[in-house]
Inverse folding.
């Protein structure tokens, strides 16, 4: 495990991992009753289990590592998820000063988490956040695929 010199170094390191390998997203799905449901997602994907174990150490409680299904001759990929709403908010607040390209996604997830914590009904703002997040993530997908 990495021995970080201080708290800032720890969160700056994680922000770098999130910037390069992470996905901050708001997913939408339809419930059995036909209503739309939004879900905050904080995912880091990597082929290095060691890196994700270090991520898990930084995040402490609230995150899990999963094996992803292998396709073809692919090296075993892994994904780290934060499952806890409260831990997600804490982690995003710690990361905020160090994020650059994913800062807006983090701000939107924080707003969404705060909005849904206090309001259980249908919210047009939740859908607006979803649409903005989708647009931001599509923009970065186009940029990264153009680089490859």
């Amino acid at each position: 495990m990495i021995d970080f010199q201080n708290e800032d170094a720890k969160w700056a390191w994680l922000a770098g991992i999130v910037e390069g390998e992470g996905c901050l997203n708001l997913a939408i799905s339809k419930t059995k009753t036909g209503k739309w449901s939004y879900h905050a997602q904080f995912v880091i994907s990597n082929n290095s289990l060691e890196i994700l174990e270090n991520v898990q150490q930084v995040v402490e409680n609230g995150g899990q590592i999963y094996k992803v299904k292998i396709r073809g001759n692919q090296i075993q990929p892994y994904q780290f998820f934060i499952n806890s709403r409260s831990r997600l908010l804490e982690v995003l607040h710690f990361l905020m000063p160090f994020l650059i390209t994913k800062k807006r996604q983090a701000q939107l997830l924080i707003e969404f988490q705060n909005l849904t914590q206090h309001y259980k009904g249908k919210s047009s703002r939740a859908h607006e956040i979803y649409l903005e997040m989708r647009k931001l993530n599509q923009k970065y997908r186009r940029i990264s695929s153009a680089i490859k």
In short: Residues 98 and 119 are 29 Å apart (CA to CA). The chain has five helices and four strands. The radius of gyration is 16 Å. The longest helix spans residues 124-147.
